[in-house]
Design brief:
3-stranded antiparallel beta sheet
Length: about 120
């Protein structure tokens, strides 16, 4: 049964999964478009939408948490100076997933492109 199982585990421990999602989120903020596997893209979409919603309503405490969790200062400043003002009037749906028709060459996994809308 799938009751009360709300997040994908991605074959990782909790700490590794959180680190992976924060790293993907940082890369998404810096590049505005990344290419990753379909399962990671779906997990990232849910994670990034929640994080961007928090960033839009940010107070000082949330900004400090973002600064400690994001990988670099550049990502922090880009998030709060360019990305958040773009989405100030939006109610959700900040991230788009586009399926890539080509599969990964090594193992044939389905790839997706994740973009900020």
């Amino acid at each position: 049964m799938k009751h009360r199982k709300k997040n994908k585990k991605l074959g990782r421990t909790t700490a590794h999964r959180k680190a992976t999602l924060y790293n993907l989120f940082t890369a998404l903020i810096m590049n505005e478009s990344i290419k990753t596997t379909e399962s990671k893209a779906k997990a990232l979409k849910k994670f990034a939408d929640k994080m961007l919603s928090k960033a839009i309503k940010a107070d000082l405490n949330i900004k400090r948490k973002f600064k400690s969790e994001l990988g670099s200062k550049e990502a922090y400043y880009k998030l709060f100076e360019t990305v958040v003002p773009q989405y100030k009037d939006r109610n959700g749906g900040y991230v788009r997933i586009i399926k890539d028709p080509l599969e990964r060459r090594g193992d044939g996994s389905e790839m997706s492109i994740v973009q900020l809308v």
